[in-house]
Amino acid sequence: MNNPNPLGVDHVYGPDQLGGPLEPWIVRGAIAHIDEHLAALGGGGVVFEYGCGSGTPWFVDRSAVTYSIETCPAWGAKVCEYLHSTRRVTGYIMLANEGSNMPPLIHCMGPSEGFDVVLVDGRRRVECIEHASGAFRGGSVTPELCRVKPGGLLVLDNAERDRYAKAVAAVDALGWDRTDHKTPDPRHASSQYGEICTAVWKRPRKEGE
Predict the structure, then answer these.
(1) Exposure string (b/e) for 32-59, b if CB count within 10 Å is 16 or more?
(2) Beta carbons of 66 and 91 less than 8 angstroms apart
(3) Sorting pLDDT into bands at 50, 70 and 90, what band is 209?
(4) Is residue 174 within 8 Å of residue 152, measured between CB atoms?
(5) For residues 45-63, average pLDDT
(6) Where do the domains of the chain lie?
(7) CA–CA dist 46, 39 (Å, integer)
(8) Given pLDDT bands bounded at 50, 70 and 90, which one contains residue 41?
């Protein structure tokens, strides 16, 4: 490809479908959705990523602070090295954690009022969605645990996968507005999915909105 990824990972989709080098690897429409949201905050937004990568520099460039939890320390070090080499270290905080307690660590990071954008695109996505939203499988809701600011966005990549269905339903039950951004998946065109979906929920600014 004409613009190789400086982090050394290959893209398997065209840039008109998913993010290209140094963009989040989510559906293109979701990238525009998040970009518009962060632009409206004038560069003052606070972002949280479950899993760092190609999208991390993109978020750092558009936010006041970006936080990441990364389960592979070697990969996290590579991303940090790239950020340092391009002078993007200011406003970036990473926690590398290989253990099973990764999802709840969102409660230990960032401002008390939460994040303007939370992206779930790594391991243990069901638990990550639960801890980010405060909505748990089985109908349990703990609003005080929600780490998405009122008016903020919660983003789940690969929302089409069956194993995430209960987490999707739990957030839907909160009544948050949801937008599904989809693109065909040529690698699995004959499978039960046939497309990739990035779901973006917007938390109401006031409860009941």
Answers:
(1) ebbeebbeebeeebbbbbbbbbbbbbbb
(2) yes
(3) low
(4) no
(5) 94
(6) 28-202
(7) 12
(8) very high
Separation of alpha carbons 13 and 18, rounded Å: 6
Question: 92 - beta bridge partners?
Answer: 66
| Residue 7 clears pLDDT 80, i.e. is over it | no
**Burial (CB count within 10 angstroms: exposed 0-12, middle 13-18, buried 19+), residue 109:** middle
- Smallest CA-to-CA distance from 157 within 61, 2, 46, 31 is with 31
E-assigned strand segments in the chain: 46-50, 65-70, 92-96, 115-120, 148-157, 177-184, 195-202
pTM to 2 decimal places = 0.90
Does the domain at residues 28-202 carry the CATH identifier 3.40.50.2000? no
Average pLDDT, the chain: 87
- List, in order, residues 6 or more apart from 178 with CB less than 8 Å away: 171, 172, 199, 200, 201, 202
8-state DSSP, 187: G
pLDDT digits (tens, 9 = 90+) for 71-105: 888 888 999 998 999 888 778 998 887 766 889 99
